Fold:
Amino acid sequence: MSEKNNALPTTNDTTPEGAGASADARPGTHADTRRATSPTLKQAAVGATSRSALMGAIFLMATSAIGPGFLTQTAVFTNQLGAAFAFAILVSILIDIAVQLNVWRVIGVSGLRAQELGNTVLPGLGWVLAVLVCVGGAVFNIGNIAGGGLGLNALLGLDVKIGGVITAAIAIAIFLFKRLGAALDKFLVFLGAIMIILTIYVAFVSQPPVGEALRNTVLPDTVDWLVITTLVGGTVGGYITYAGAHRMLDSGKTGPENVRAVATSSVTGILITGVMRVVLFLAVLGVVAGGVTLSTEGNPAAEAFQHAAGEAGLRIFGAVLWAASISSVIGASYTSATFLVKNKPETRRLQNWVTIIFILLSCAVFIFLGTAPALLLVFAGAFNGLVLPIGFTLMIYVAIFRQKDLLRGYKYPLWLIVIGLIGLAIAWFLAYVSFGGVFDLLTPTS
Structure:
């Protein structure tokens, strides 16, 4: 996203030739050997940028997966299913593990973006995937901006539309100004930490029935496949599948020689998202189990936080929702742009402008859209749940049949293929049984 600063001087650039040369600086001396084995300032800067981008990739995946759609879905479905929603949480985490471990490894080892892999396997497939991801990303991004408006409304009392415009403007500034763009990865880490810490506090205050939640995790009282599909789509599907992996390519940690870094990063991201999903569910469950019935219209998650911790809870929710929203605006827009622009250093500026246009269009649609924000967020997750199996099928195909060329001779682990096939089968099953119900979500109930 932001361009690396290639103008940094190296250690050898700082001393003019022949100036102040000491005896121990001559070739063959200890000092010369030390200089030869130590990284130059430029190399250290590039390494730091690479590590920062990798951390940004981890939190881009995590914060995209726990965006405003997930917050709204969790409140709505916990209110509907109670502790039985724990089973849906478990299924979403298991599918997340199967999907992200494979997606990160295939993209990381190949060094190619998802649409590039698709077009290599079957010409045109990559562009079909790009259209699906961008359509889902656009729907989700409208919801993300709406979520930002809801968050600033709860936090500061701002009008929802004004809050949405402010959220979009800040996201645009990050891609418009180079200095802000350079701090993007640190900004994502900060937002992720704020979300987790504040939600853990509310989960502790709400005193949820943990025992009942654990029982329903494996023996649910109710199983709703549309709910599971919506949750999976809102946390794993669509653009979310590729957000972290595409950002990882910017870190330079690609190829078979970087498998360990790729695997560690994907596992870290999965753990972060898993923790956030569980604590948010417990926070809302504690409120619902206490006899409170949340409204399915407006801002149900805000109600849950307010019931749990009073006025402070409402402000905390506002901060959590806004952090989730702006990070998801960044994730949806950036990832969609990576599907439309070639992965070359000289196209980074064009990619940033496509990202900005994507945000502007999403914001414009949000301002003029009549659909309720909460309903839109739920639908976006359900739609992405339909898109998920298409792209994931491509990843598993490459992992099984294209190891010699696309994966550069890398021997793909059999256990990873097995869990990928299981996750793929579940994703296709969920998409099949929920197809009609997904589009019914757009029809307002009277």
Q: What stands out?
A: The chain has one domain: 58-438.
